[in-house]
Amino acid sequence: MTSTMSRDILPTGGRIFTSVPDLLFIPEFVFGGLVWMLVASAELVQIPNPLGWVMFVSIFCFIMTTLWFFIFLCGANQSGIWPSLDVGYHFVAVVFYLSASVILAYITFLRGVLQSLTVDLKTYRLDIAAVVMSYLATLLYFIHAIFSAIRWKRS
Fold this sequence. Notes:
By secondary structure, the chain is mainly α. The protein is built from four helices and no strands. The protein is elongated, with a radius of gyration of 19 Å. This is Myelin and lymphocyte protein.
């Protein structure tokens, strides 16, 4: 007779605060939210706005990570497809954030070099902070994707 173990595929409830990849939800919220706020606080809005992609990525990932967090917290992640969905979502988030980070760094560089006499120092510092937070969010999503892939391979 075959014995089946009833083990959880992914952590649920309070256990998400003790597992390595899922512990990164909180810093992803923080750094992703900071990117959103810092880019939104910039006073320079031009048409067409290249920072629209950065805003889309930061808002999309913030909302999806919030949804993902609550799915994990409520325990609705126990079917066999969730580990691969977890890896897929975090891989997409890494690609999105990396592209947004590069665009944001390039726009910040252009603002600093081309408009060095007219750029407001406060806005420029906010842009630099947004670039740093964007790359940190990219790193966190990348680490989460790696650990999720390792967990997916083990399941």
